[in-house]
Amino acid sequence: MAKFVAAFFTGSSSMLAEGIHSVADSGNQVLLLVGGKRAARARTKEHPFGYGRERYFYAFVVAVVLFTIGAAFSLYEGVHKISDPHKVEAPIWAFAVLIFAIIAEAFSFRTAIIESNAVRGKQSWVAFIRRSKSPELPVILLEDLGALLGLIFALFGVTMAVVTGDGVWDGIGTLMIGVLLAVIAVVLAIETKSLLVGEGASPDVEDQIRTALEGAPEVSRVIHMRTLHLGPEELLVAAKIAVEHNDTAAEVARGIDEAEQRIRAVVPIARVIYLEPDLDRLRSTSASG
Fold first, then answer.
1. Domains in the chain, ordered, with CATH?
2. Backbone angles phi, psi at 275, to 5 degrees
């Protein structure tokens, strides 16, 4: 609201772009909350694996909203202001709101960094954003970064417009905000689209699952395995495992049960597990040879 008030008194397109940016960000947080709530619904006959991936869908919608509302409007307003520049009036409104907003946004960004560090581990920030299976933290992290940089761009545009007396600088600052939002929206769209289409477990998690399977006495080896994230905290594991040809059905069933327990012990999010036993043909062939 403060940004819109400042935009009204100053006539600054940068301030107006920042106001629209804040509206888009606030709406995006609501979308993420809605996605989290809908994803928690119990599974049904129509959706036997539950609704966990709705979190990915709403994160993708966030990217679309950020691009269409935030970036598109800012780019339009920036071009309009450059083609028809106006002097920034009563700049003290803009400076006061922008400086306060930068301080507030810095605290928000700091919180996002602290929360991300708790789950990021040793990954770089780029790797964390690209590989995270939980969409909320990367989305909020990039949104906060974009908000902070956007405020700095707006402050730059307004300051230059006041110092030079040329309103074109205000339009340039608005264009910078639009380009920034467009880049962030595209990055978010690419990453959330990958999650929405379906991503498997990370290589280290798959190695843990394979080791747990092959550690079961009745399992000779893993013939092949597929994993799929049904949601950030729910993983589907499907594998064909080799068993000895002389094992009884009871021994195979017992081995499968133990293998499932071993998987869940090392990867608790592996909640849906399907194991298909098959004869260890490689060992049988080498033995007969």
1. 2-197 (1.20.1510.10), 203-288 (3.30.70.1350)
2. -120, 130
